Amino acid sequence: MKSFVTFLFVVYELYLCESQGISAGTPVFVLKGEDLLLNVTKTVVLGKFDNFSWKCNKSNIVRFTFNDKGVSANYTRRVEFPVNNYSVILKNLQEADSGVYTAVVATDSGDETEAKYNVKVQDRVSPVNLTVVNNSVSRNSSSCSFTVTCSSQDSHINSTFTCDTRTCSQEGGERSEGIPDTFLQVHQSSGSIICNHSNRVSWTDTTIIIKDVCHQHDVPPPPNPVPIILGVFFPILILAIIGVLWCYLRTRTIRSSSPDSGSNR
Ligand SMILES: *[C@@H]1O[C@H](CO)[C@@H](O)[C@H](O)[C@H]1NC(C)=O
Ligand SMILES: *[C@@H]1O[C@H](CO)[C@@H](O)[C@H](O)[C@H]1NC(C)=O
Ligand SMILES: *[C@@H]1O[C@H](CO)[C@@H](O)[C@H](O)[C@H]1NC(C)=O
Ligand SMILES: *[C@@H]1O[C@H](CO)[C@@H](O)[C@H](O)[C@H]1NC(C)=O
Ligand SMILES: *[C@@H]1O[C@H](CO)[C@@H](O)[C@H](O)[C@H]1NC(C)=O
Ligand SMILES: *[C@@H]1O[C@H](CO)[C@@H](O)[C@H](O)[C@H]1NC(C)=O
Ligand SMILES: *[C@@H]1O[C@H](CO)[C@@H](O)[C@H](O)[C@H]1NC(C)=O
Ligand SMILES: *[C@@H]1O[C@H](CO)[C@@H](O)[C@H](O)[C@H]1NC(C)=O
Ligand SMILES: *[C@@H]1O[C@H](CO)[C@@H](O)[C@H](O)[C@H]1NC(C)=O
Ligand SMILES: *[C@@H]1O[C@H](CO)[C@@H](O)[C@H](O)[C@H]1NC(C)=O
């Protein structure tokens, strides 16, 4: 199975620590079920009494001491150490793992936050339905206009299109947020209307073809062959069968009655 790993980089730059000190940290988006690599990008040298920790929301995930390491109870089965440095892989992230991840070096003179990431775990977006609103199609020789609704489990947007033979203008349907960091957007592209449901880690879309909406009433529906067969051929067939049967029975009656009358007399 394909496994993706999202990388975090520890940058040992003082100005970065300061600029990120108060902020929520660099945003990182992870697809639910994937792994997160907490990568150290510079050699960390710990003094005898120094510690290096990866934390989530201030609680330890793992703490490295001068010659040992300890994984917090909540993370024992979920942490891997890919290499012989302070990099850590956190496995199988769930929505509840969203939070602020920090790399902290603890020394006698205090704690230094070396990196800060605002990790958000998102699931795949749900499928969307794109439908033409009932009775919204209106058209004349030069233009056609209609309204579509695109709906997901959580929200919906409407958008009205007015099309001439070459182009369509659109009203409404711009990117709008249902749940945070999730977007619904209706747009047009090469003769189609597309509704795109997306978040930071996935997207799904549905398409309808503009011609199918606007030319719906142009062509009379093609004659359906079934009623023709039923309405014309069946009666003829039945009449033919009745006729053949009738002839057959008649000739049989004539044949069987003539010798009878002959022998009786
Ligand atoms: C971890 O960071 C180092 C230094 O930036 C980089 O060379 C390395 O490719 C990163 N590791 C992974 C697995 O991306
Ligand atoms: C830690 O190991 C990773 C994977 O081999 C490597 O990319 C990274 O550069 C190493 N970090 C340091 C500081 O050596
Ligand atoms: C472990 O998880 C529980 C529940 O999620 C939480 O209450 C507790 O503080 C966590 N413990 C540590 C050491 O992070
Ligand atoms: C971290 O804190 C945020 C916001 O308070 C919370 O939504 C999230 O679930 C927490 N993450 C963990 C792993 O406790
Ligand atoms: C580092 O961890 C060790 C063992 O858990 C502890 O005794 C020590 O006080 C810690 N050092 C610092 C600077 O916090
Ligand atoms: C749209 O119209 C059709 C027939 O006019 C009707 O069967 C259908 O239930 C309507 N749909 C909605 C969502 O109103
Ligand atoms: C067709 O309809 C559009 C808008 O509904 C209108 O602007 C246009 O003038 C109409 N054209 C004709 C030929 O009726
Ligand atoms: C999409 O349409 C199908 C069939 O009409 C329906 O079962 C499903 O619940 C709809 N999904 C959404 C997200 O509206
Ligand atoms: C979208 O259109 C539907 C049906 O016409 C209507 O019920 C709904 O309120 C509209 N929603 C918005 C956000 O305009
Ligand atoms: C849908 O939106 C996502 C995120 O903005 C984008 O990457 C993707 O290409 C879009 N898909 C379509 C079919 O427009």
UniProtKB/TrEMBL annotation:
It comes from the Eukaryota. The chain crosses the membrane at residues 228-249. Keywords: Glycoprotein, Membrane, Signal, Transmembrane, Transmembrane helix. The keyword Transmembrane helix applies. Gene3D superfamilies: Immunoglobulins (2.60.40.10). InterPro entries: CD2/SLAM_rcpt (IPR015631), Ig-like_dom_sf (IPR036179), Ig-like_fold (IPR013783). Residues 1-19 form the signal peptide. The keyword Signal applies. It is found in: Membrane. One of its GO terms (cellular component) is membrane. This is Uncharacterized protein LOC117540923 isoform X4. The lineage of its organism: Eukaryota, Metazoa, Chordata, Craniata, Vertebrata. The gene is LOC117540923.
